[in-house]
Structures are given as structure tokens and as C-alpha cells.
Amino acid sequence: MRALYNLLLLLGTLLWLGYVLARVMGGSWRKRWWERFGWVPVPAPREKRRIWLHCVSVGETLAALPLIKQIRASLPQYELVLSTTTPTGQQTAWNQARDYVDYLIYFPLDLPFAVRRALRRIQPSLLILFETELWLNLLAEQHRQGGTVMVVNGRLSDRSFQRAKRFRWLFQRMLRYVDFVCAQSPTDAGRFVELGMSPARVEMTGNTKFDQALESVSSAESWRTTLCLPLEAPVIVVGSTRTPEEEQLVVRAYQQVRAQLPETCLVIAPRHLERVPEVESLLQAQGLTPRRRSQLPEQCPPQTYAQVVVLDTFGELARLYAVADVAVVGGAFAPLGGQNLFQPLAHGKPVFFGPHTHNFRDIAQMAQSAGIGFEVRTADELATGILRLLESPKEREAIAERARQLIQQHQGATERCLQFIQRWAQRQEKHTLGVFKRL
Predict the structure, then answer these.
(1) Based on the domain organization, do 178 and 29 belong to the same domain?
(2) Catalytic residue among 35, 47, 60, 391
């Protein structure tokens, strides 16, 4: 089976090799590209065992932070290696996790020689994968070396599950090498079991993003000053837009809101910073005068107040939701699966989103059931919903209370996951004497 998998990788070489070379030569993989092929800057372990934690990008890295901190505090006998796939994930890890881990690396491609080389250097007793980062060669090599594999915050979106069922032969083989899954929800737990995991090795522990969300709560007043926003003006924060169509929908809704409430301000944060000039041009074409967050003065007299701000800085959106009266989260007005709803809800903000939320299915359903999240499909629906809430401070206060209750009720996933990690760490220590044998 693994031979077939690697044969398919080989047959697809011309396709993925061109992609990799483009990334290395002129794209986002240019820096530290050698780590993608297993040359990770990690020396051989000496006295301490190691735990390797892997997160794909920003969202997974942020969700992992509470758990990383707990592992550092409760398992000091281990060194921690944290890997990400994307440069933005690596930057997030560097900014927020470097004080809690020993090594930060890029995740290697799932090529036999690359994962073997990386594992030879890291020699992890535990390999902890966040969400659904399953790669056959990596899992097989870790299993061959006698190490443990855990999936934490495990989830299978509707699309991922359908894809997994089509390639059941591959997923069943990969899951043979997974020792334990901490699933986000009963639905996710059931899906892992349906794909081949033993029910005894799957536990519904919840989503650590509920724990992480409250860590980002900050002051609305300080953000008004930072963003040069008028002190009493209503503010709409639009986060994580991913396509021009989404931004056009939001801008049309904003224009309708401003026709009724002219002082209303807009803060918009595209998901990818390289799209900032595109978003800026789109706003200008609609007759607006956007200002970049990085170019705002430190002191803002009234004549320099901004009405439309484009967030062009990294890592601030989670805290910036504090300034919102109403939030809009992108990624779901187009069929892209949605983006993080936890952050605005942790600040007690009503949140609007589109219909395509399959990557955040559970929290979207919870938010709608609690009356704190609102699915809309058109600019008119979005404008109507925003106006209703901006004109009703009491309703916004009630929503804020319900939102905070929802986040608090679902906290504790970090502690539950930590308990299973500790058990498997103890099990691994009993199973082997000393650290991994060097290959």
C-alpha cells in the first residue's frame, strides 16, 4: 500500500515538482527551503526526550498555543519541536510560541527520504498532529521507529470526509499508524471511527480554539486610538476576506449602512496580506478613502481620523475585534469553508458570515442557535442585519453576554487533551528505555 502511495507520488512528480520549484525560486518557500526536504535545524537529542507538534498555518498554530504552554509547564522533561507548513504559520509561531518551544521548523514534504531525515534528527517520542494533518510516509516512519502518533483537535470537515471516503484505502492505512485521536466534536469522532479508528482510541475532547479565543481579548478604547477611529462612531470589523467578490459584497453592504448612519467606520482585514493593494484599489473604486493601518499616525487629532482602515499588519486581527460594534467574518461568502468565528465571539461581538461554513461547521451552528451569529447571503441581507444591530444597543449587550457564555461553556479542551498526552507520554516512557535509537 505504501509502495502504491509512493508510486503515485512519483507519477505526479512533474506536477508537484513544478509547484515546489516555483515556491522555492520565487515564492513563499524561498527562505529555508531545505527544511522542506528534511534538513531541519535540530541537533540529535541528548538528555531529554522530544515531542514534535505540527500545525499547518495560522489558525492551527493559534489553537495549539494553550496546549503548547500546558505541555511546557507539565512535561518539562521533554524538548518541544514545533513545525508549520506555511510561512504565515511560521511567523505566528515565532511571534507567539518561541518562548515555549525549543525548536521551530518547517514541515517536510511527505517524501520517504525527507521525512526519514527529519525524524532521524528530531527523534520524537510523541508526534502530535493538529486537526487532520495525516501523511502516510511520516506516520509509517514514526511508527517504524517505535514512536507514538496523536491527532489533537482532530476534525474532518464535510468535504474532507467525503474525500476520505473516496480514498478509504489510504485513510485506513494512515489511521493504522495513529495511536489516539482527540476529536473536536462527536461528529468528528464518529467520522474517524467510520474511517477505521478503533472507538477505544478516539475521544471527544472539544476544540482548543475556545480556550485560545479568550487569550486574545483586548481593550476597545486602545484600538480606537491605534486605528485613528472617531471616539463615538459605530465600527464594523470585517476579518479574513479571501476574494474580491467577498469584499465587493461587504463594501456594498457598508455603503447601504453608511447611507443610514454616515459616521459608521469600516476596518477590513484580508486573509492574505499580499492582497492589501487589491483591496485598497477596490475600496477606492467605490469612492472610499482607505488608509493602511501601518501608515496611521501615532497621535490622531480629529482632522486626521480615519473612516476606512485596511489592516496590513500581521497577527493583530484577533485582538482588533475588540473595537467592533458588529463583526463580519469572510471566507464563507464564497465556497471556501469559512474562517475563525471564535475571535469575535470571545469579544462578545455579533458576527455575520456567509453560507459556506463547512470548515467551521460546529461553531457556526452553535452561534446561530445561540442567536449571536447570523448567516447572510447577499449585501442587502448583510446591510439590513448590521443596521438592525447598530440601532439596538440593548440587543448587542444581550448578544455580548450570550457570546461570552458560549465561549466559556466550551472551554477546557486544552486540559482534556493534555491529560491524554500525559498518559501516552508515560506509556511511551515505560515502553522504551532512553531516547530513540539513532538510525
Answers:
(1) yes
(2) 60
Q: Verify that 234 and 187 share a domain, yes or no.
A: no
**81 phi/psi in degrees, rounded to 5:** -115, 125
d(CA 390, CA 393): 7
User: Is residue 13 domain-resident?
Assistant: no
Q: Which helix (H) or strand (E) holds 149?
A: strand 148-154
Number of Cβ within a 10 Å radius of residue 384 = 15
Residue 251 lies in a domain: yes
What CATH number should be reported for the domain holding residue 333? 3.40.50.2000
> Which grid cell is 14?
512533474
Residue 76: domain span: 25-206+412-430
pLDDT tens-digit map of 30-89? 788 889 899 999 998 988 999 999 999 998 999 999 999 999 999 999 999 999 999 999
Residue 223 is predicted with a pLDDT of 93
Cα dist. 217→40, 343, 365 in Å? Answer: 35, 8, 22
The question of whether 60 is a catalytic residue gets the answer yes
> Which helix (DSSP H) or strand (DSSP E) does residue 90 occupy?
helix 87-96
Read off the pLDDT of each residue in 338-363 and give the average, rounded to a whole number: 94
What are the tens digits of pLDDT across the range 240-284? Answer: 999 999 999 999 999 999 999 999 999 999 999 999 999 999 999
Give how far Cα 329 sits from Cα of 75, 176, 343, Å: 37, 37, 10
DSSP state of 231: T
Summarize the chain as % helix, strand, coil (round to 5): 50, 15, 35
